[in-house]
Every structure is written in structure tokens, then in C-alpha cells.
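Transcriptional regulator: structure, please.
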Amino acid sequence: MLTEIFSELFPLLSTASPQSLEWMLNVATEHEYPEGRAVLMEDSWGNAVYFVVTGWVKVRRTAGDNYRALAILGRGDFFGEMAILDESPRSTDVIALSPVKLLSISRNCFIQILFKDPQLHHRMLQMMVRRLRHVNMRLQMRSSPPAVKLAYTLVTIADTYGQESNKGKEIFHVDYQDLADVTEIGVDETSKIMEKLNEKGWIDIDANKQVVHLVNLKQLMNLAGRL
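Here you go.
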């Protein structure tokens, strides 16, 4: 993978120096996982940061005897940074939702790069603040109607990972239980709202290809309060 492509694919690395990018590519390890495979397990010690080259994963946390999805991540995102920065066991699992290809960089190498490249260090802080703002927004929306919250989740996934298509932004067809967990609404509500949005023509669900097209992104953004 060329350094230019590496930088364009991962927003975190957009400000990294050419030397940092080349060094990261040299020390990175490639991984491929099938759908349903655990990439990282809760309570394991953080020894690397991971970058999603292709595919989709979910971040989940144990809730009693069950699991609860916390976030959906796609191409261009990264995970595992919290455990390597505070040198503690991971607090969440990461599970492949589809076949995924990842790159990992060991903790020691990544920490060295952050110290050597102040622009990358600053970009890392920006990305973590952005994630915190997203969490704050979700907290503010807890009292919003379920349809508003679900529209916000769909628009956010599309903004971050959506691919352009002739039917609008294309995203992964996330399992309704996971989508409900991330949105913090009931799974029955999620199913009914998705069916309603599909009937209205705002989205197009292709279960066979495991994709959802956001046909009327403007209406969804309006519903989510993003306009």
C-alpha cells in the first residue's frame, strides 16, 4: 500500500509526515477475519492499535450474561488506542460484522510515532475529541423520539463510512439488535422504523447484499436534526 493511499484511507493519518507513514507501513501487520470472529476480547491487554482497511466491525461491552453493541466502525477508522495509551486491559470486545481486513501497529511502535510526529499526535487528539462529542450528542438525544435517534445513527454512519452509489449513500445492513443497542432504543422499534423508512422510500434495504442505501439523505438529516 502506497503512503499516499494509506494517508487518504485513514483520516487519523491525514496530517502524518511521509516519513511517519512509510515507517508505519513497514511495521504494520495485516490481518483478515471472517464474519463473526472476535478481533479483540474484553480484558485482554492492549498491545496494538488496529486500522480497518475493508469491512465492518462492532465494538461491544459485556452486560451481565449478554453483550451490548456500543459502536459500528467501518473502512478508514481505527480502534484499540485507549488500551495502549493508558496501559490497561481493554474494556470492550471488537467483533467482525463482515469479512474484514485490518492493519495493526504494535503499542511500542505507535507510541514512538506519536512522540516523533507532533502533527499526528495533534490529529489523534482531534479524533478522540470528535468521538467524545459524538458520545455527548447521543447523551443529549436520550429523550428524543426513537425515529429521530435512529435517523441520527444512520446519518452518522453514512457521514463517516458511507460509499456513494446511484441509490445514495451505501452503508452496511447492521443487525437490528446491534443497531438498536447503538441507538439506545428497542429492537422492535428499530425494526418498525426501518420498515417505515423503507416504505417511504427514504432508505432502500437490500438484505441479500447486506447493504442499506440512504436514498433520501436530506430527509433523514432533517429528521435527525442535522440540517
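Notes: Residues 70 and 124 are 21 Å apart (CA to CA).
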